Amino acid sequence: MRDGTPAGSFMGLWRDEVIQPALDRDLAQAIAEQQAILEGDARSAGAHYALGTLCQFKGDRQAAVEYFSKAIEFDSSYAAPHVSLGRIHAIEGDYDAAWRHAREAERLGDSSLAQQLTRYPALGSDGDSR
Q1: Which of 35, 73, 107, 113 could bond to 102 as cystine, CB 3.0-4.6 Å?
Q2: CA geometry: angle 41, 45, 51, nearest 5 deg
Q3: Residue 66: how many CB atoms within 10 A of its CB?
């Protein structure tokens, strides 16, 4: 945190001038790599999922939802995009949608989202808000 002290100023400078630009470059490179995959195979569920994840890192939730939805469209047996979409819906407060994705991911073999959601008693274990 920048607090006006030499250490705080140094850490802020380090974060703003070194770390963040490096992360931005890495993110841009990863996005370009996944987009190149889509140029060769526009129906690649894996590339759509990866782009959704990268968009989440960038803070572009709407693009992430679109990419995750495409991943599901192109591979209905892919659990990971359901988990990611469910997490987004939970963050947005749409618990019914979060539970729909959690149940589908669980059906496909990934119970991680359902386990996370059951930790919050107000959401209920069956997806119905209490």
Answers
A1: 113
A2: 90
A3: 15
Query: CA-to-CA distance for 64 and 56, rounded, in angstroms?
Result: 6
How far apart, in whole angstroms, are the C-alpha atoms of residue 90 and residue 125? 14
Q: Cite the DSSP H helix spans in 17-94.
A: 20-40, 45-58, 61-74, 79-92
By the 8 A CB rule, do 48 and 68 touch?
A: yes
Apex 49 CA angle, 59 and 56, nearest 5: 10
* pLDDT at residue 125 is higher than 60: no
Q: What percent of the chain has pLDDT over 90?
A: 72
pLDDT exceeds 50 at position 2: no
Q: What is the mean pLDDT of the chain?
A: 88
Q: To the nearest 10°, the Cα dihedral for 62, 67, 68, 72?
A: 140
pTM of the full structure: 0.80
